[in-house]
Amino acid sequence: MATRRCLPARRPALFLRIGLLQRYGTVNGAANSPLEQIMSPSLFSRFSLRDLTLSNRIVVSPMCQYSAVDGCATDWHTIHWGQLLQSGAGMFTIEATAVSAIGRITLGCLGLYDDACERAIANRLAIARANAPSMPVALQLAHSGRKGSSRVPWEGGQLIPAGHGGWVPIAPSPIAQLDHEPPPKSIDTEMLSQINREFVDAAVRADRVGINALEIHMAHGYLLHEFLSPLSNRRNDDYGGPFENRIRFPLELFTAVRKHWPEWKPLGARISATDWIDGGWTIDDAIAFVQRLKRLGCDWVDVSSGGISPAQKIPLGPGYQVPLARAIRTATSMPTMSVGLITDPGQADAIIKSHEADLVALARAMLWNPRWPWHAAAALGAQIHAPKQYWRSAPRDAPNVIADAKVGQR
Length: 410
Ligand SMILES: Cc1cc2nc3c(=O)[nH]c(=O)nc-3n(C[C@H](O)[C@H](O)[C@H](O)COP(=O)(O)O)c2cc1C
Hints:
410 residues; alpha/beta; TIM Barrel; 2 domains; 14 helices; 12 strands; binds flavin mononucleotide
């Protein structure tokens, strides 16, 4: 990783490229050499995070499924994970997974806070993995904070009051997400230690069930973002007030998880790079925060935005968060994932080729078309790995899109 960061972020001079090609081979497709991946990356070049190598730069973004029961994965997860593990992406990320029952957003959210949750993920992931080509699996560890105790989206997504089947959500300060809601319970220092332990315990469970990479959810107005943003954090102790205080708990938590997560496995964070509100968390804050995460051994930052308040004004449009990823990557040299309305293979390839981000994460486009990476590979002249049962599916105009495919008959 250190070598990657030291190299210049521009294409090498022609003579150097020729030298590299002579030494390492092709510049196209998934078989790129390590040096070519650094010097002229593309959507279908490999990328390494610690000991983990992704076969391409496409990451399936974490997506809540609201289909767990008591935090436990269900048949839905077996099918959903199975289909996305067949997608040909470089890495699949399991949805926001709560570190405690009250850290869930809804009653249907996935958890990793007891033995039953752990067994459910282990068993269902084993089935999904056994029926797909090998793909690294990341899991997003999360705590909902004041956005907890919500109805699932298809039931309106509003707060379920305690006493009506919900719970009293917790937050750095007793400020409600919406003005008409009762305030959440303020977190005291004992609860801070408990939440810290819950993240560590869940990380240990995630390692046991064979998760390859962990992403800590610090975005979208959930608990850790609530500590970072001056709009939701009005504490007057060591964990609130100035920037250094507001980043303290997320950094302490990151340090604790890094200590208990295997050294060879990557650990990243999803952040909101801006609140999109005057007086809120800004891109400059995000850059300073990522610099601190980097020093603590963070392997990538997944750059999203918003979520702290409905007052946000988000300039939605294709790739609207790419400039945020680029700003962070340029200022910090942190391996950076860009997400948000990346839907077209050429667009995704251009983001990687122009060094705006190292990885792209796709969410809705992957639900719409779970074989998006197959189609992207066909469009860009690259290759993906597919289950052998589907090897005969390669279209006429891209007959070699499936790597290692063999079709024989008598
Ligand atoms: C159904 C659904 C569930 C989501 N759940 C999560 C989640 O669990 N964690 C998270 O950080 N973001 C979540 N998101 C946000 C996506 O990961 C992604 O950042 C966002 O949808 C923008 O990317 P897109 O334009 O490719 O969809 C979710 C989005 C969707 C559509």
